[in-house]
Structure formats: structure tokens, C-alpha cells
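USER: My hope is that you can spare some time for a protein that puzzles me. I am handing you a single protein, as its sequence and its fold in C-alpha cell form. Walk me, if you will, through where the backbone shape changes along the chain. The protein I mean follows directly.
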Amino acid sequence: MPELPEVETTKNGISPHIIGRTVTKVIVRQAQLRWQIPEAITQMQGQQITQVQRRAKYLLLEATTGTCLIHLGMSGSLQVVDIDTPVGKHDHVDIVLQHGKVLRLHDPRRFGAVLWTQSPITEHKLIKHLGLEPLSDAFTAEYLYQKAKNRQVSIKVFIMNAQIVVGVGNIYASESLFMAGIHPKRAAGRISLMRFEKLVMSIKQVLQQAITEGGTTLKDFTNADGQSGYFQVKLQVYGKTSQPCPRCNTPIKQIRLNQRSTFYCPCCQR
């Protein structure tokens, strides 16, 4: 599933090709994605894309009089291709741009979304209840410490709560907790401010590293090869069941928390 770094990488990849371009046509081949694509999406036609932003895992294409929200779902990807590029089976939406380019959504499992709003984006029902961005200055140890007070939920589940902080997906939660030396099952309300300092630093470092790695291995977003351009992140514990911990050689353990696979070192994480 595309997570925050993949979405950020996608944003960085497509932005130079679409910002400042006018949308000449919107082609919807399959309207039934996670939510029905609204007919109002055609209001993008004739409008200029003025900015591309990311909020959590949503891409926000800001146009002259509205915003197009795109979510990549479980398997979605975006590429900028030439207008005469053959359409594939799972190429569901084309945003046709001036100068013969197309922003194309490819989504085999159809769990993605393409929506349109003319209201302030901060008031959209999918956006307004989201927590802080993890790479923002507002995301601090004090913020997490206050939010965690008296909470018995495990710290891994806590930091994956999008109403607390967005974009800390399953992989990055395991990796950040390993870097911070915190056991994933520890109750969020039983973690000291000092340990939250280390955790916040670890979350920021893990996510930034993943974004940086994405930038160095990014596929050409103007290429029609069907590749998503996602990076290969250097994982320390995720998916490493029974393999030696990179710090102490203790075998990595795997458990399930909130129905998600969780990986940790029983020696290094307390």
C-alpha cells in the first residue's frame, strides 16, 4: 500500500509536469473506485492546476476554483504520459493536460479515489479530522506526550492513529519504534516525555530517509512503463521474523497488534 513517503515521492514526481498546466479534458473509464467519482470532476476542464499538495496520504491538485483529491488506495499509481500512450486495463482516469500530456491513474484493485470539491479543502470530511503531519514543526514530543496521557492503547496502535498523527503506516511504525528502542506493546500513557523525544525524532528520521531514498530511485514519471516509482527502503525489523537484530543479533519477533503484523527486537525494545 502506498504510504506517506510513496505519496510524497509521487507528488514530487508529478508536480513539475502538471503545475501551471490547463486541464483540457477529464476522462473517466471506471467511476466506481473506493467511492464513486463524482460527475463534478469535469469542472476541472478548462482550469489551471496551480499547486500540488499532500495531506496525509491524499494528493491535492489545487485548480482555479476547486481541488481534486486523489488517494492511491492499495495499489494505485500516477504517471504523466503522452496523450497517445495506449490505455491499460486498469487505467481508470485520465486528466488530460495542455501540450499533449496526461496524468493517468492506474489502480488494479480500485481502492483509490478521485474526488472534487469547491469548498475549502480543510473543511472536507476526509481532511478536517486528520492529525498533525509528522514532518511538521508542530509534531513534537510534548504534543504526543499530552495526547497519550492516561491512554492504555499500545504505542504502535497509538502512533498509527491518523487523528493523532498522519502517515505513520505499519512499516514505518515498526521501524520507528525499533529506532527509538520502545516495545510496540507498551501502553502509550506509560511512556515518558524523554522517550517520546526519541520516538518523535525516530519517526521524522525514518520517514525522511524513506522520502530521500524515493527521490534517488524514482522512476521517470513521464515514462509509460507502468512502474510506480516507489523506493526500496532499508528496513531494520519489518518483515525480518527470526532474522538477527542488526544491533544485538537477537532473533526478531513477529506479533499482531490491531490485526497488523508487528516486528520488534525483544532485547533492544523495552
